[in-house]
Amino acid sequence: MITLSIVRDKTNKVAALLIALVMIQAVCAVGSIAAGPSEGNCSYANWQDQHSLWEISTRCDPTCMGAPDMQLPVHRFNNGFWEQSSEPDLRHHMAEQAAWSVVFVHGNMTEVDWSRSHSLDLFKKLTDRAEGPIRLICLSWPSENPKLWISPSRQMREKKSIVKANTFQLAYFLQRLGDGQPHGMIGFSLGAAVVAGAMHLNAGGDIGGVVLGESLSYPLRETLETRVGFVAPAFDRNALTANGEYCQMRCTFSSLVNLYNSRDPVMKRFRVFDHSTTLAAGYLGLFETKYRPLQADPAAGGQILQIDCRSIGATHAFKSYMCCCGFNTMIDNVLGKDASTTASVAESFVQINNN
């Protein structure tokens, strides 16, 4: 009887353990659905009716400069999951499905999961404010957190090399799109440097003495008037001036909204990363004058609207910038709306018209 009781006792414990495991799996499944759209959220299924979200990735080869015919890995967000696709599939979709196309490049120290989370958040914002179908293409570049055993100076050198490589990668990708050029470009932090550099290259500029035309098998496209949005851009505030690093970008956009934050601790220390005395465009805005730092250089092209997002506090988080009143203004600009009419009076902003 004692032996039978022990066996029965063990059997009950095993059954109780199995029931507990089943319940835990059920709770986790419910939790993953409630947590967000990244895995199997049915509420996002209707996006595919008119909108589409794509991801191109350069994470497999961080320092590769790219090539005209190089195909990047592509994924498409479909029915709550990221499904493998290809560049030809993306170009076919752009040729067959009319939509307002926007390219987004995330910032530094962003793992794959966070990159996709930012993409989904931005996609939701775009589709909420759009008046028609949206196609968002996100560049996921190797910007993982630095290894602790690597010295800060080496980390900076490697990061600069990666940013430069991805600038060329994005420029080549845009060339491969042919006539299907994006209507809008959005860059956050170092992602803004990638966007500005790619547009600069496509306009015939050079980076480090290298231009696309030297090895490009496709004819350089004619300059298009693109809508641009920068969020805490991590590059020299004078980069778009006549002698700036990305000077050729001036002729590629019709309007640009720059969201900076004069309380951003990362942007405040940008000169440490850049090894210079320059200030970041994400800290005090684009361009520099002696007495009025928000006034633009008259040589710059297009319309520029700059908004100080100091109301979000001392932060460099992308999702915090999304809470800035000026974020919707930036989104409206990228969507082709008149950004000046949607600028919030709650934010300090400067509008610059250069004809």
Written overview of the protein:
- This protein has helices at 2-35, 87-96, 112-129, 152-176, 190-202, 265-268, 270-274, 281-284, 318-321, 327-334; strands at 52-57, 74-78, 81-85, 100-105, 134-140, 184-188, 226-231, 253-260, 302-308, 348-354.
- It is α/β, with parallel strands linked by helices and 355 residues long.
- It folds into two domains: 1-35; 42-354, Rossmann fold (3-Layer(aba) Sandwich), CATH 3.40.50.
- It has a ten-stranded mixed beta sheet with strand order 3-2-1-5-4-6-7-8-9-10, sandwiched between helices.
- Helix 4 (152-176) crosses helix 5 (190-202).
- The longest helix is centred in the N-terminal third of the chain and has 34 residues, at 2-35.
- The chain starts with a helix and ends with a strand.
- The model is unreliable at 1-8, 13-45, 215-220, 289-300 and 341-355 (pLDDT under 50).
Tags for this entry?
355 residues; alpha/beta; Rossmann fold; 2 domains; 35% helix; globular; disordered C terminus
Per CATH, the class of the largest domain reads Alpha Beta
Biggest sheet overview: 10 strands, mixed
How many separate domains?
2
Question: Helix and strand string, N-terminal first?
Answer: HEEEHEHEHEHEEHHHEHHE
Gross morphology is globular
Trace the largest sheet across and list its strands: 3-2-1-5-4-6-7-8-9-10
